[in-house]
Amino acid sequence: MKTQVLIIGGGPSGLMLSRILSQAGISSVILERQSRDHVLSRIRAGVLEQQAVDLLESTGLGTRMQAEGFVHHGIELAWEGHRHRVDFGDRPVMVYGQTEVTKDLYDGSDADAVTILHEVSNIELDLNGPGASFSQGGQRHEITCELIAGCDGYHGVSRRAIPADRIKLFERIYPFGWLGVLSETPPVAEELIYANHPRGFALASMRNAMLSRYYIQVPASEDPADWSDDAFWDELRRRLPAEAAESLVTGPSIEKSAAPLRSFVAEPMQYGPLYLCGDAAHIVPPTGAKGLNLAMSDVQYLAEGIIAAQSGDRSGLEHYSTRALARVWKAVRFSWWFTTTMHRFPDQSDFDQRMQESELAVLSESAAARKVLVENYSGLPL
Ligand code: FAD
Ligand code: DHB
């Protein structure tokens, strides 16, 4: 088998890259470890920056998002009996689930007749060929290409194909995780509520008028099976502002999952013909809603580089890693700051506690401080 760009991983990064390339007349093949149904069933991100919205639109996949997504003009911060709405002004975000983005991207790849090989295992990258060998349906296959895009998430094989002495890894593991619940109930508020509470952080989010997404901070090792729906709702109620807790409508969870929180960056994001995109190269704690958005900006930079290289200009590919990392590190900083400001750490001292309260007080009193939050939450320029 032969293609121009071999894409490892058919999540949002891989699917979006193949869509942009296909529209530029560049062939790609996607190798995905899971089944299509499995990829489509993962409930993850919910907030899109304008750059991700623009990218979906410019690739002709924005119709359903425009009809079914919700434009949000602010978020609420809650702490110690205070509630403060942060107004986004002219920098709104789009609430549209990653599951829907992935579905739109799959519909696009069906229309483009892109080859996506599912349930592929034992991928071995050949960075000299370049190409890869892999197993599917009990048989071993080989594929050659001009360039490999590693879009296979944090646990994928691509990043690990880079020799250890040619990559530097930066990591912070937070001593807690998030337990998330999806329920067919009306959202507790019109906008997202981020709550700092002595019992731990809570987030009230949504997908649509009858689909709510809630998260609570839990210990890192928590098993969602240990949480009954009632236990989750009781804990969420304790952490939300009182008026919100009173009006919370509960119901059976249709999904419940736990995610550890970490910050992680691999530098550089390129080695030879292999280019890393999205979670394969970096992870941010979800508090700032940045992961999917960073994946989309990486893809945009890489696609621009690949397209320009077709007509002999390789500068975009040469500068891909530097360009992507400049945006990544700022999002890592914002996600770290927002996580640190909103969560209870097991070893939090009284001093740390006052710092959090002061940080939130500054946000509520200073338009300049809010402006910095909005710039980052709504998305830094490409
Ligand atoms: P992935 O989505 O991880 O896709 C990688 C793909 O590669 C997967 O389909 C996987 O099956 C496949 N794969 C893995 N290994 C292999 C292999 N060996 N061979 C072949 N294929 C392989 N981001 C936001 O922007 N906003 C949010 O609000 C937000 N909220 C989040 C909430 C939670 C609870 C979580 C967990 C994440 C959240 N994120 C959010 C992050 C966001 O979901 C990720 O950043 C995004 O999925 C990254 O996309 P990706 O395509 O790079 O990686
Ligand atoms: C959602 C997830 C986030 O991490 C976030 O910051 C906001 C919303 C969500 O899943 O809706």
From TrEMBL:
Span of domain FAD-binding: 2-335
Domain of life: Bacteria
InterPro entries: FAD-bd, FAD/NAD-bd_sf, HB_mOase, RIFMO-like
Pfam families in alphabetical order: FAD_binding_3
Record keywords: FAD, Flavoprotein, Monooxygenase, Oxidoreductase
Entries under SUPFAM superfamilies matching the protein: FAD-linked reductases, C-terminal domain, FAD/NAD(P)-binding domain
Keyword Chaperone: no
The protein's Enzyme Commission number: 1.14.13.2
GO biological process: benzoate catabolic process
GO molecular function term, any single one: FAD binding
NCBIfam families: pbenz_hydroxyl, PRK08243.1
Protein name: 4-hydroxybenzoate 3-monooxygenase
The organism of origin for this protein: Pontivivens ytuae
Gene from which this protein is expressed: pobA
